[in-house]
Amino acid sequence: MDIQYIDPATKTWAHRPATPAEIAQREIDIATAAAPVVPAQVPMLNARLALIAAGHMTAVKAYVDTMPGIDGEQARAYLEYAQNVRRGHPLVEGIRQVLELTHADIDTLFVTAAAID
After folding, report:
1. How many angstroms separate the CA atoms of 51 and 42, rounded?
2. What are the C-alpha distances in Å from 65 to residues 37, 43, 72?
3. Of 64, 52, 60, 51, nearest in space to 105 by CA
4. How far is residue 47 from each of residues 2, 9, 113, 116, measured CA to CA in Å?
5. Is residue 16 within a helix (H) or strand (E), and if so which, with residue range?
């Protein structure tokens, strides 16, 4: 990889080989630019549509339906009536654990949900 710069003496474009540090930084810059931003929250409808598309909605409903007591009632109300779902909500973490999803899997679901129009 070459570095292109303006030579101050000639005021023309010049090239020089990139240093290993410059190459490494370029790779980091490319990877960072390509990484999608995970939204902190998405509309609940979009979250549900993303779960359906990923084949997880049936398992999510089964998990929430079997939750006992007030926690179960609150989880069902959240899933049914919330306008938005937050990435950091405890129910999201519970679903992640029960479905044996990784944090990256949940991030992907949130990115997918955010892209739904």
Report:
1. 12
2. 31, 21, 7
3. 51
4. 44, 58, 5, 9
5. strand 12-17
Q: How confident is the chain (117 residues) per 10-residue block, as mean pLDDT?
A: 86 91 89 85 98 98 97 96 97 97 97 96
SS3 85: strand
**Using alpha carbons only, what angle is made at residue 39 by residues 41 and 82, rounded to the nearest 5 degrees?**
10
CA atoms within 13 A of residue 33's CA, in its CB half-sphere: 6
pTM: 0.72
Q: Evaluate the CA torsion angle 53, 54, 56, 61 in order and state its sign.
A: negative
Give start and end residues of each alpha helix (H) in 19-116: 20-34, 44-53, 57-65, 69-81, 90-98, 103-115
Radius of gyration of the chain (CA): 23
| Cβ proximity of 85 and 41 under 8 Å | yes
